[in-house]
Structure formats: C-alpha cells, structure tokens
Amino acid sequence: MDAQIDPRALFTLNYGVYILSTSYEEKKNGQIINALMQLTADPICMAACLHRDNYTTELVEKSGRFSISVLEDAVPLKFIGLFGFRCGREFDKFGECTYEIGESGLPLVTEYTLAGIELSVLSVQDVFTHKLIVGRVEKAQLLKEGTPLTYANYHRVKKGKSPANAPSAVFNQVK
User: Fold this and answer.
1) CA 25 to CA 5: how far, in whole Å?
2) Cα(136)–Cα(138) distance, integer angstroms
3) Domain 13-158 carries which CATH code?
4) For the segment 107-132, what is each residue's pLDDT rounded down to a tens digit?
5) For residues 36-59, b (16+ Cβ closer than 10 Å) or e, as one string?
6) Which of 7, 153, 138 minimizes the C-alpha distance to 77?
7) Alpha-carbon distance 51 to 2, whole Å?
8) Where are the domains of the chain?
C-alpha cells in the first residue's frame, strides 16, 4: 500500500454489513459486502461494489438483478462467515440459513436481517480489481426493527476480518 495512505483514516468512514444475493438459472449465491450506498431518490438507485473474480459478481452480471439483506448488530460472526469466507461455487450457502424467494425470484436472507431490498442492474463499471454495480430498487421491505451492524463493529466488537477480495481488506491492518 502507498505509504501516504493511512488505513485508519479510511476506517473513519461509515459502512454497513450486508448480504448481496442473486440467482441465475437455478443457481443461488450471496456474499457479505460493506460497499453499498443509495445514489438517487427518484427513482431510488443504489450502488454496490464486488470483486471482479467473485462467483456472486458473475451471477449478478448474468442475471441483471440482486438483493440486499441488511444485517442486524446481533448477527453472530459464524453466520457472517457463511457468506463471507466460502465460495458458492463449491458450497450451498443458502442450505445453511433461512431465506425467502422474492417476487422477482431473488433469494433474500431473512435470518438476522432487518430489511430486504430487490434491485435490477442498470450498469456495471470496472474499477481496477472490482466492479461497481448500479441498480434500481424494485422493492424494499422492513422485516424487523433493530440496529444495523456497522463495519466498524464487525471489526472492533466481533473481531471479524475482511477476505482478501474485499474492498476494505486494508482494514485488517487497523488495530
């Protein structure tokens, strides 16, 4: 990393912890993300950032749609690990959790989830090692009240780490 970039400065930015899921030709997959933001209000559009080599990225590009599960602060680290540290090419992540299939056919993890959002892809932009995926919100539902998990609490309270492919893997260096 560039000596002029202090990862502690980047760690001051606010992030949430989410599961981004999709399906294509009967294949479901999902992964933990923290790079998600709302871009517009009318229509409501959001952007998510995924590593270009991830299986989820491949399926999102093929299907043209994805869902977001907003995780609650009480989610156990082991549950996050289901979607954060194993590849869906070799492991059925949805066989280990509670989920529903939305109106658009997308899987939506409901366990430890505060809200679910379904989106259609508007554009995909290459950004070095990652892809920025812009989507239009088609449906959003509140599943329960609670406190969303922040990425800072994932690291500080739960002592979680970021996979090498995560845009925020640099935070593993922050103590």
Assistant:
1) 42
2) 6
3) 2.30.110.10
4) 999 999 999 999 999 999 999 999 99
5) beeeeeeeebbbbbbbeebbbbbb
6) 153
7) 20
8) 13-158
